[in-house]
From TrEMBL:
<keyword id="KW-0378">Hydrolase</keyword>
<keyword id="KW-0067">ATP-binding</keyword>
<comment type="function">
    <text>Involved in beta-(1--&gt;2)glucan export. Transmembrane domains (TMD) form a pore in the inner membrane and the ATP-binding domain (NBD) is responsible for energy generation.</text>
</comment>
<comment type="similarity">
    <text>Belongs to the ABC transporter superfamily.</text>
</comment>
<dbReference type="GO" id="GO:0016887">
    <property type="term" value="F:ATP hydrolysis activity"/>
</dbReference>
<dbReference type="GO" id="GO:0005524">
    <property type="term" value="F:ATP binding"/>
</dbReference>
<feature type="domain" description="ABC transporter">
    <location>
        <begin position="4"/>
        <end position="218"/>
    </location>
</feature>
<keyword id="KW-0547">Nucleotide-binding</keyword>
<protein>
    <submittedName>
        <fullName>ABC transporter, ATPase subunit</fullName>
        <ecNumber>3.6.3.25</ecNumber>
    </submittedName>
</protein>
<keyword id="KW-0813">Transport</keyword>
Length: 218
């Protein structure tokens, strides 16, 4: 089945900017899809609409299971500077169910998944840009969401750090098989990471091409 389905979705901002559409877009459960296109083609808008952070002007958005289960990773890690890595990652759990007993265990598992088990007690300022992004990824995964939405997460990182993160994200996805929608304007990144590349063009943001990436692995 589909994890995410957009039908005839448009978005018009105030002052008349038509950012999107209409767009039809489906993502199968467990797939890794890239949204690729130049700045301003509506990638972020589409992602924010899927996440429920923004209302479409028209059209229909459907998420499997009612769509309550989403992890979002922004380009900026947006960590709380006064809180430890552990507490930053625990935040979504504490917000949804403050008294749950397994918060510590889940945080530990999420940090291990991104290779930061040793840094639970560190503060964000002690971490490199790549490590902060890993914390942000752990925070998005800690609630075990069905869908992971990533908005140009590695765009601000140097090329080598970015390559390591690409490889680790790929390994993570192979292990977890979560649905991932990954926004990027890097052709390399989209082809390297995803099973399907959806290309968008601006004014208004529309889907203009789709490619299946044929890999040897299942
Ligand atoms: P992308 O993520 O591909 O760079 P965006 O979704 O951010 O594209 O933006 C698509 C278009 O909508 C752009 O023309 C952008 O300037 C415009 N836009 C984005 N957010 C807003 C907003 N809050 N208000 C008005 N226009 C916006
Ligand atoms: P990106 O291209 O990385 O998606 P943008 O620079 O397009 O980022 O947008 C950054 C922020 O500014 C977003 O929250 C977006 O909604 C907002 N924004 C973008 N374009 C406009 C605009 N023309 N008017 C108002 N807000 C905008």
């Amino acid at each position: 089945g589909d994890a995410v389905s957009l039908k005839g979705v448009t978005k018009r901002y105030d002052r008349g900017v038509v950012a999107l559409g209409p767009v039809d877009f489906n993502v199968r459960k467990g797939d890794f899809v890239s949204l690729l296109g130049p700045s301003g083609c509506g990638k972020s808008t589409a992602l924010r609409i899927i996440a429920g952070l923004s209302e479409p002007t028209s059209g229909r958005v459907q998420l499997a299971g009612g769509g309550r289960s989403i992890g979002f990773v922004f380009q900026e890690p947006t960590l709380m500077p006064w809180a430890t890595v552990r507490d930053n990652v625990a935040l979504p759990l504490k917000l949804s169910r403050p008294r749950r007993a397994d918060i510590g265990d889940r945080v530990e598992v999420a940090l291990a998944r991104v290779g930061l088990a040793e840094f639970a007690a560190a503060y964000p300022r002690q971490l490199s840009g790549g490590m902060k992004m890993r914390v942000s990824l752990a925070r998005a995964l800690v609630t075990d969401p069905d869908v992971l939405l990533m908005d140009e997460p590695f765009a601000a990182l140097d090329e080598i750090t970015r390559f390591h993160l690409n490889n680790d994200l790929l390994a993570l996805w192979r292990g977890l098989r979560k649905t991932v929608i990954f926004v990027t304007h890097s052709v390399f990144e989209s082809v390297y990471l995803s099973r399907r590349v959806v290309v968008m063009t601006p004014r208004p943001g529309r889907i203009c091409a789709e490619y299946a990436i044929d890999t040897a692995e299942p």
